[in-house]
UniProtKB/TrEMBL annotation:
Key word Ribosomal protein present: no
Gene3D superfamilies in the cross-refs: NAD(P)-binding Rossmann-like Domain
Its EC number(s): 1.1.1.47
Name under which the protein is recorded: Putative glucose 1-dehydrogenase
Organism: Estrella lausannensis
Keyword Transferase attached: no
GO molecular function, one term: glucose 1-dehydrogenase [NAD(P)+] activity
Gene name of the record: gdh
Source taxonomy: Bacteria, Pseudomonadati, Chlamydiota, Chlamydiia, Parachlamydiales
Length: 256
């Protein structure tokens, strides 16, 4: 039997990039998955087909996770479709690549709403459901090396990821008595659409690869495998911690 057979997961931003890789990883481990998306329903439909071929089940839900009502919809759909909620992955995120001096109010509000507000209320709503079930659970936040490592020119994004760092730690302590483990995964540079402008520029790619000790960007699947680990029995004594998956990037000079 696969390790996550009988478990139900929700993944926000689940139909592209790291999110799609996480959805497939959890399904391969036996979980049934609710896939949150806001655009490209064809990508979500393709994921459902792939998951069916793995012998698992998935359902897509179009939801704007900056809205509390839509987060409640994701959790209620998980329960109504699959009967429970065991794993919630706060993966959705955006950035503006703007500095303190240049970030507008609307840019700031959008980044913080999608990256941090959504993670806070998803944690709250998912935890309430898990407490009701009396069987514990896992909440996994996809943060970034920038929860800890400054990135000049991307200030709102760094603020949101730093906030997720403290959400992970504080919520983990509050929810521990209920058997709910709260952890984070902090990717470095990953080959996903959010980094497309860098990936299209050979000079930028050469510069980036040169400061990563492993010499390359991560594949989305490499992040997803860590999420799979944190969802399973091997991580049963882990909470309030971030696992950085960055190829050693944080230990280099941040001169990017």
């Amino acid at each position: 039997m696969k390790e996550l057979t009988g478990k139900v997961a929700v993944v926000t931003g689940g139909n592209s990039g790291i999110g799609a890789a996480i959805v497939l990883e959890l399904a391969e481990r036996g979980a049934q998955v609710v896939i949150d998306y806001v655009a490209h329903p064809e990508a979500e439909n393709e994921l459902e087909r792939k998951i069916a071929s793995l012998g698992s089940r998935a359902v897509g839900v179009k939801a704007d996770i900056s809205l509390v009502a839509d987060i409640e919809l994701l959790v209620s759909r998980a329960v109504s479709t699959f009967g429970q909620l065991d794993i919630f992955v706060n993966n959705a995120g955006i950035e503006t690549r703007t500095s303190v001096l240049d970030t507008s109010e609307s840019q700031y509000d959008k980044v913080l709403a999608i990256n941090l507000k959504s993670a806070f209320f998803s944690t709250q709503i998912a935890a309430r459901q898990m407490i009701k079930q009396e069987a514990g659970g896992r909440i996994i936040n996809i943060t970034s090396v920038h929860e800890d490592w400054p990135m000049p020119g991307n200030t709102a994004y760094c603020l949101s990821k730093g906030g997720m760092r403290m959400l992970t730690r504080t919520a983990a302590l509050e929810l521990a008595p209920h058997g709910i483990l709260v952890t984070a995964v902090g990717p470095g540079a990953v080959a996903t659409p959010i980094n497309l402008s860098t990936m299209k520029d050979p000079a930028l790619m050469q510069k980036l690869d040169s400061v990563i000790p492993l010499g390359r960007m991560a594949k989305p699947e490499e992040i997803a495998q860590v999420v799979g680990f944190l969802s399973g029995g091997g991580a049963s004594y882990m909470t309030a911690a971030t696992l950085f998956v960055d190829g050693g990037l944080m230990h280099q000079s941040p001169g990017l």
